[in-house]
Amino acid sequence: MSTSASLFAALGPIWTKLRRSLGLAIRSLWLQKLRAFLSVLGIIIGTGAVIALMAFGEGSMQDALEDIKRQGATNVIIRSAKPPEESASASRSFVSSYGLTERDLARFSTFGDSVTRIVPMRVFPIEGRYLDRISPNARVVATTPGYAEVNKLEMASGRFIVDDDDEGKENVCVLGAEIADKLFPFEDPLGHTVGVKSHFYRVVGVAKDRMPSGGSGGSLSAEDYNRDIYIPLGTSRGRIGEIVYTRAAGSRSAEKVRLSQITLTVSDVGKVRAIGNEVRAILEQEHNYKKDWLITVPLDKLEEAERAKERFTNLMAMIASISLLVGGIGIMNIMLATVTERTREIGIRRALGAKRKDITLQFLVEAIVQTSIGGVLGVFAGLATIFTVPMIYKWVAEKALPAQVHVPSIFIALGFSILVGVIFGLYPAWRASRLDPIEALRHD
Amino acid sequence: MPPIVRIENLVKNYYMGTVTLNVLKGLNLRFDEGDFIALMGPSGSGKSTLLNILGCLDRPSSGQYYLGDTDVSAMNDDQLSEVRCTYLGFIFQSYNLLPQYTVVENIELPLIYQGVRLTPETKARCIALAEMVGLAERLDHRPLQLSGGQQQRVAIARSLVNDPHVILGDEPTGNLDSKTSVEIMQMLRRLNQSGKTIIMVTHENDIAEWARRVVRLRDGRVESDIRNDAKTTVEMGRG
Lengths: 444, 239
What we know:
The complex is a heterodimer of chains A (444) and B (239).
Chain A: H1 2-31, H2 33-71, E1 75-80, H3 84-88, E2 95-98, H4 102-108, E3 115-124, E4 128-130, E5 133-134, E6 139-143, H5 147-150, E7 155-158, H6 163-167, E8 172-175, H7 177-183, E9 193-196, E10 199-207, E11 228-232, H8 233-239, E12 243-247, E13 252-257, E14 261-266, H9 272-286, E15 293-296, H10 298-341, H11 343-351, H12 356-397, H13 407-433, H14 437-442
Parallel strand pairs in A: 2-13, 6-11, 8-10
Antiparallel strand pairs in A: 1-14, 1-15, 3-6, 3-14, 4-5, 4-9, 7-10, 8-11, 9-10, 12-13
Chain B: E1 5-16, E2 19-31, E3 36-40, H1 47-54, E4 62-67, E5 70-71, H2 77-87, E6 88-91, H3 103-114, H4 120-132, H5 148-160, E7 166-170, H6 178-193, E8 197-201, H7 205-208, E9 213-218, E10 221-227, H8 229-238
Parallel strand pairs in B: 3-8, 3-9, 6-7, 7-8
Antiparallel strand pairs in B: 1-2, 1-4, 4-5, 9-10
Helix pairs in contact in B: 3-4, 3-5, 4-5, 5-6
């Protein structure tokens, strides 16, 4: 208590002096408002640009990261893919057979505890019907109960597929939000039956609206969960069969695929890469080095995206330091002019008892106040840009420009604008303090 | 009573390239407390240089300068600044007020560098000084709104705010007409009569008349040192 009191007593005069210099600086700047404003314009633009660019960079980066995270950072996704040699020889046999099989699925179950969930799925591009209503662009997804968790699918009503449905080959289905809306605009879909090809499935649940995951390149294409009809994997074997017919432009083809995709959820983020490599090794062996599968490890992309973000941030920092450097030189220039202009004032103050350090402090604080105000104005300019430019962009280009205010960048930009004041104010302030009082008093 | 200002063998040289300018050539002077001294001499005599040294704005090349008991000739810049704001008051020919400050704020200025916390009491003191020099109506005016005589009166009030031992005037009436000059000199005389030591530089004989003692310099040496005692006695008697 006593130490803090004595510390306060020691800091008191410094604080008084600082507050007085602050008042003095604001007053001197107010006398030359326009000049002060013009001289900090560089700082304003510099800080504003940094904050705005960071926000736009952050916004698009966040978009990409969100997308990858939606796929699950602990997941390893393996998909069936049409091998290149197969497509070349597709004319010979009408039905091409490739892809993941139940054998692969069985092999993966040997991972033990490090893999907490294995979710296989088959996808059929078939529509669902109810009365005279047809859902266009629908997918029938045959899968197991783990699917909902892996894809972070939440239920709006009812339940998702359970183990009993799968084992008992029950004719039940779960509808995506959009499909439910299309097929049952007026009634509650629960309990009604939806027709898929020649079979009917009782609706047991409706999923909540879920953001589609964007295609992140490679083997993973965009998935729109809202148009899916989910049925138990066991049921699909008997009812739909193994052959998937697809209509390509002008030609018809059929593909025999056992499983479209297998998603493994790894217990620990640290093991994801190792499991991914093992999966790769197993599949290469099992499939005889035929490339009819593709593996995606979202974690890899996450790290790649984060590295890209880091590079972007460094680039921003470089641009920022250049613009602040230019702003700082502007400040120094003006401060040197100010010192020359106010030589007489300096002389008067020195004659009345101001020490060199009082003069240094006065001009240094003046420079810092200028750049700080510039920094604050820059923050506002930046924020204004963040909120107006996406609106204009949307209006002109009819596209969204994602912007995410990057809070640390605001403080860093502010900190740097203050630092610029210190660095570039120091020399003019030092020059002011070295003036000979007698010479200074004679100055007109 | 010991002298308030004592200088011994004071020498000031200016070095301009290879040429050495010998401005003060070993001055010896003593000024008593409560005295009113006029420093006179033609230009180049060294009177301004002497005043700068007395005002601790400049340092002698050699010799001693005692202000009271303290030898200030060996002090560094910071110490001299402290002496200026604690023991000295300045009145300049061109007033030297800060144009952006009001009358009261200009009077306050020396207190800031003394490290005094500005309180309502210090402000009241500054207002009292402004009233004393006859500017009660113009406390919030800025220097440019005042006449030369009024500005000089602000400067006098400012020189008094730290209750200095010595007031130094550098041609305090140099920019004023003769009527205003008389007003200012009357004010300085009143201050002197109340006990303040005043040292002023002037080149006008009728201004020097107001002082009690006139020291004339020529070529860096004391040419004459005369007391105006008779006149002062008359004035004192009248006062």
